[in-house]
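Model it.
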Amino acid sequence: MKFSRTYSLKEIASIISTSYVGDADFPVLGMNEIHVVEPGDIVFVDHPKYYTKALESAATVILINKEVDCPEGKALLISDDPFSDFNRLSNYFKPFRAASEKISRTASIGQGTIIQPNVFIGNHVRIGDNCLIHPNVTIYDHCVIGNNVIIHAGTVLGSDAFYFQKRPKGFDKLISCGRVVIEDNVEIGAACTIDKGVTGDTTIGMGTKIDNQVQIAHDTIIGKKCLIASQVGIAGCTIIEDEVTLWGQVGVISDITIGKGAVVYAQSGVGKDLEAGKTYFGSPAGEAREKYREMATLKSLHKIVENLKK
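Modeled.
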């Protein structure tokens, strides 16, 4: 998330009442999670295991719970609770705005687009030309939808990320203030849920087709001309490259990449990066031919054991 103007390090520190290390006028341009940070961004870190990763990331302002040596060209915000202070910044720069009507007056809807009854369209949503939005679709604030997009009944775009930190008293929620971006010529089936990014975008690439009852989590990027069948679940921060096919009930773990043109057969569980252009099956998913050989071997294992006993 980029701010509307450049803030100083001192200004940011005053918003969350923290001390800082660095020039008071050090420029701060936005805030993001570590996998999408750019120079000028704030990133938060609250566990020693990840200090080095955060300090060496592209972010130039690190919100951290320990005073450490500040890398050259960067600045620190010293916080007792970086998770909560990151939430405070999210609420400050992108506060929740309650809706007062079914279709916000701040929404932009293109020519030739059809909005069926009982659709909710939130604040600052942008919808392109010649789209068809079926009944009972919910489109949260700031979503962006391209041209020639079809969204079937009951789908929800822009719900919050499933992102919590365990505390002694329960779970604290990381506030989501990103967007969902749907590119041109996408079709999304009925009763799908696509969560917005925590601070960035969840993106569905041009020409991708999504079946009914699919869940796509925060900050996931799906490429162009992908096919995603019913009941697929994709965890957060996943990259699915162009022309990938995921058949029914495939589950995909977070923070991995599925290469261009890969095909994953139904009911497979993807727990690591998959190479481009190959076909996969099983849980954990492996190359389909190898998995079928493994299954054939297991099927005949009892015969092998019986022969060994003779």
